[in-house]
Amino acid sequence: MFQALSRAFRQSFDPAFRRVFNRSMLFSLVTFILLWLGAWFALDWAGEGLVAWVRDWAGDGFWLGLIDWLVNAAAIGAIAVVSFFLFPAVMVTIMALLLDEIAGAVERRHYPDLPPARSQPIAEAILGNVIFVAVTLILNLLVLPLYLILIWLPPLNLVLFYLLNGYLLGREYFEMVSVRRLDLPQSRQLRRRFRGRVILAGAVVTFLLTIPLVNLVTPIIATAFMLHIFEDLRRRGA
Fold first, then answer.
1. What distance lies between CA 36 and its chain's CA centroid?
2. pLDDT tens across 5-16, in order?
3. In total, how many domains does the chain have?
4. Which domain does 44 fall in, by range?
5. Transmembrane segments in this chain: where (predicted)?
6. Nearest to residue 20, comparing CAs of 110, 105, 95, 71?
7. CB count, 10 Å around CB of 77?
8. Angle formed at CA 89 by CA 96 and CA 99, multiple of 5 degrees
């Protein structure tokens, strides 16, 4: 486990890793620039309506200037706060679309004897995603009462948090890298056989996602890390 994580971090400066990170950052910035422009025009339009209402109510003068200043300040503040909280999530989402390149880079460096990766059928990919989303929703609904109960018991709510997210993230990343070499039923059979190791690996990914700044590159590190875990388990299974 630690060796796999160490290998993933040591390869973090690989050109392929940097390309995925840079493209994710660029696409995220473009996305947010478009969102900023749209939000600015929307808030400006709303602010003009408010200023017009104040002018009708109080006329020109101190109150009109104050309201105009407050509207502009609130718009800038709201956009800044929302961007601060949403940017990592948007970047990670965009990065997730490029992670196959990371898996390929890891295989070229550490597993050069592997044959070309399997191309996953679209129907299989859709089915896998639908099942994952369904499992995520069902499990979160089932454990919600426990979360509410254990909120007063910090050690236990942390255990539940890492256990649940370890299972979900372990499953997600393990299937993402394993379907390059196995079909979906084989991937699930291997994951279930080594369920404990996969959940533990998912808990490590969960922990990385809780660290500021590190969470921006966690999908890249997690993909490389889980690929090493998968290859180790595949050899053990064989």
1. 22
2. 999 999 988 898
3. 1
4. 2-237
5. 20-43, 69-99, 126-153, 159-177, 198-230
6. 95
7. 10
8. 10
